[in-house]
Amino acid sequence: MEIIQDKQTLQELLEGWRHHNDHVALVPTMGNLHDGHLSLVDLAREHAERVIVTVYVNPTQFGEEEDIDEYPRTMERDTRRLKKIGADVLFAPDDDTIYPFGIEEATVVSVPGLTQNFCGASRPGHFDGVTSVIARLFALMQPDVAVFGQKDYQQQLIIRHMTEDLSLPIRIITAPTVREDDGLAKSSRNQYLSDEERTVAPKLFQVLDAIGHDLQNGKRNFEELEKRAAKELKAAGFQPEYVAVRRAQNLAPPDRDCDEIVVLAAAVLGKARLIDNVVVTI
Ligand code: AMP
């Protein structure tokens, strides 16, 4: 596996691959890799001869009250894991490589609408940071496919929207959420949970999964289901930010005939802000 930090080395390598008609898959991450990230790499491998994983802690997606310096950086361990799983390249650029004019002068790519609610409401500007950095990675690498996790449901929907809206010739693939044995979605943030909070954390998935089953059993009282779940989360010790039953396709409120539904939630437990979702066909 090659570790690359600069644009030119990356471009030369990509040129060589293209010469051989190799397809390229991109897996963007912020590092601190766990099995969820690695599953994205495995899936990428099924769609392309070459897989690039980026590890870049993108400053523009952190809010003013979020501390980017505290974000865990585990480059040595990440490198070992990526080598073992067979990624072709680990691209770990610095801020000047990604934002050559500096952050203040950087072009912003912003998707209206889809970014306004849910995680966009509680983290203003977050999704503009995400789309701006992903657009930059897409432009740098021009991959054939890019893989994102369903864990960040709203994020992958926004990236799909951006890609289609800008007619970028990149296929977006969404990978299923990898979970711990007790159902908790794997996340770098789980390490902020105390032992006691860790025993409570799987409740988030349990309440979403329960709504999924209720929907599949014919329940259509969407608002009541949302309220019940928020109440259950509170009783368990979470501070729920939102629990929402929405159309999977575009996060609009569902009507009774809607067939694909996503149930998504964010909730704070101790120091960790956890998100999760389930998608059901009804
Ligand atoms: P991050 O490094 O947190 O920005 O995540 C990088 C990518 O990994 C994103 O596309 C996430 O949706 C995805 N991801 C994070 N956690 C999981 C998980 N538990 N299962 C599958 N994908 C995940």
Give the neighbour order of strands across the main sheet. Answer: 1-4-3-2-5-6
**What structural category arises from helix and sheet content?**
alpha/beta
Mean of all residue-level pLDDT scores: 97
CATH-assigned fold name of the largest domain? Rossmann fold
Task: Write up this protein.
The chain has helices spanning 7-19, 35-47, 75-85, 95-98, 119-122, 126-141, 153-165, 195-200, 203-216, 222-236; strands spanning 2-4, 24-29, 50-55, 89-91, 145-149, 171-175, 239-247, 260-269, 272-281. By secondary structure, it is an alpha/beta fold. The protein has two domains: 2-175, Rossmann fold; 188-281, Pantoate--beta-alanine Ligase, Chain: A,domain 2. It has a six-stranded parallel beta sheet with strand order 1-4-3-2-5-6, with helices on both faces. Strands 7-8-9 form a three-stranded antiparallel beta sheet, covered by helices on one side. Helix 6 (126-141) crosses helix 7 (153-165) and helix 9 runs antiparallel to helix 10 (222-236). The radius of gyration is 19 Å and the shape is globular. The chain starts with a strand and ends with a strand. The protein binds adenosine monophosphate (AMP). Adenosine monophosphate binds at residues 29-30, 36-37, 39-40, 148-149, 151-152, 175, 177-178, 185-188.
